[in-house]
Amino acid sequence: MIPSNINILENHPLAPLTTWKIGGAARYLAMPRDLEEVCGLMRLAYDRGWPLFFLGRGSNVLIADQGLPGLTLYLARSLLKLERQGEYLRAGAGVPLPRLARFAAELGFSGFESLAGIPGTVGAGVRLNVGADGQNLAAALRRVWVATPQLHLIELGRTELALGYRSSLLLQFPHWLVAEAEFELRNPAPREMIQARMGELLQARRLRQPANPRSCGSVFKNPPGGPPAGKLIDELGFKGRRVGDAQVSGKHANFILNQGRATAAQVKALMAEIQDRVWHTHHIALDREVVFLPEDLI
């Protein structure tokens, strides 16, 4: 049974909960505080036949202008456990990646610095094996605990997750929820050195990426064995290209910015135009990093 003290909101706007500030409302929205409440809400959704969606800090996601049916669980304020257990770090799915990086630095362990500039959460980060500057989560990840639609808690080791570039086994199971992850602390280093490296990476990131925060991060994956997606898009003259208020960044062509009141339809039209031109010019199919909701989960 769902705890009676959980508030479920109706027709709640989702755009403010995303970095793009785009999208319609959730038919129902809940903000669970811990795994028990998450599981209670998952059970409620399945019992009532509602579609179920998970939303963390709202990066790397494009929510449809029509919003989301069913129940959306906003997890940016829950599953925030973060603690050292001997040679490992245990982190809840809702822990922001920059917080994970800072925590490891305070403990004097390297290997997490590149996460300081990534706006997502541990749960989404594990699902996509995020990373930057030559680092990704796979290098330190040891195992995860996943809640299934049947409310079974499954433990999966690093090799079972089939981690690759912006991919993992979890992408094949979008209705599984990453509850916790465990990371290895393998690279001790002076705190000052780690913090200085984090500062250097953040500064380099600011120099090459747009200052406008109303984006989802990188829109397309880099093609395997080919030029980076941003370079391909730039060479085709897309910097500054607009569809309504959706605009390709003039600083980094793999970013699409919301310059006012951009809609999901406008972003999708711009993405489709880019993919079409890259394909017809280079015969390279650009795969998107950004998740479309609800399409990718229904």
Helix and strand layout, with pairings?
Elements: E1 8-13, E2 25-30, H1 35-48, E3 52-55, E4 61-63, E5 68-74, E6 82-85, E7 88-92, H2 97-107, E8 109-110, H3 122-128, E9 131-132, E10 135-136, E11 141-147, E12 153-157, E13 177-184, E14 187-188, H4 191-208, H5 229-235, E15 242-243, E16 246-248, E17 256-258, H6 264-282, E18 291-293
Question: Which structural traits does this protein have?
Answer:
Uridine Diphospho-n-acetylenolpyruvylglucosamine Reductase, domain 2; single chain; four-stranded mixed beta sheet; Uridine Diphospho-n-acetylenolpyruvylglucosamine Reductase, domain 1; 6 helices; Uridine Diphospho-n-acetylenolpyruvylglucosamine Reductase, domain 3; five-stranded antiparallel beta sheet; 3 domains; 298 residues; alpha+beta
